[in-house]
Amino acid sequence: MSTLLVINSSANTGDSVSRTLIDDAVGQFLAAAPGIKVVRRDLGTTPVPHLTTANLAGVRGTPATEEEHSARALSDLLISELRTADTVVIAAPMYNFSVPTSLRSWFDFVLRAGETFKYSEAGPEGLLKGRKVVVLTSRGGLYSEGPGAAADFQEPYLRHLLGFVGITDVTFIHAEKIGYGPDARAAAIASARGQIAKVASTFSTVAA
């Protein structure tokens, strides 16, 4: 059975554009491939802890303490969810020109040497090749083009992290200028939904 991993990272559980878009995406993907398994990970309501001196060895060393073993168990779980997924959908609002710290923490626990990447004489190699990722972003301004593009530390950052673990089939769908007023917000959501529909139209083939 094909598996869809759904990752929310917005701290806003109310009128969140990224949450609206990811719910729409999951609905369209399920319509295209009703038999898929959906695994949900909400980093906004159930955040992954930040790496600290108390838990670091659980992810990047040899765990010894209870907190370190807890961090290792969580890292194992998050990696397992990612490893078993054929397709991943990430909802990533832009916070201060980048991603929410909740999403950064998820990557901190997922990027683990020997599990999702390895080092060799030729350099690092990603171990999670063959997966497809769709990233749904919400942005108050315009950053995909024009002067604002220089301040986009979101898409390049996510592309690099995903590529580091071997995931290069990544589609970004941006809902931009949502801070420009109700009309601009509605137009951004409508545009993003149209792009989601195009991606979903091919999903049944991917999930087969």
Secondary structure elements and pairings:
Blueprint: E1 3-8, H1 17-32, E2 37-42, H2 56-60, H3 66-83, E3 87-93, H4 101-110, E4 117-120, E5 123-126, E6 132-138, H5 155-164, E7 169-175, H6 182-200, H7 203-207
Parallel strand pairs: 1-2, 1-3, 3-6, 6-7
Antiparallel strand pairs: 4-5
Helix pairs in contact: 1-6
Q: How many H/I helices?
A: 7
CATH architecture name: 3-Layer(aba) Sandwich
Outline, from the CA principal axes?
Answer: globular
- Helicity, as a percent range: 25-40%
Order of helices and strands: EHEHHEHEEEHEHH
Mean pLDDT figure: 95
Strand content: 15-25%
In CATH, the topology is named Rossmann fold
Provide the spatial order of strands within the biggest beta sheet. Answer: 2-1-3-6-7
Q: N- to C-terminal separation?
A: 8 Å
- What can be said about the biggest beta sheet? 5 strands, parallel
CATH superfamily: Flavodoxin domain
Low-confidence stretches: none
Structural category is alpha/beta
Count of spatially separate domains: 1
Radius of gyration: 17 Å
* Number of extended strands: 7
CATH top level assignment: Alpha Beta
Describe the 3D structure.
With 208 residues, the chain is α/β, with parallel strands linked by helices. It has a single domain, classed as Rossmann fold, CATH 3.40.50.360. 40% of the residues lie in helices and 20% in strands. It contains seven helices and seven strands, in the order βαβααβαβββαβαα. Helix 1 (17-32) links the parallel strand 1 (3-8) and strand 2. The chain is globular and about 55 Å long. It starts with a strand and ends with a helix. The relative contact order is 0.18.
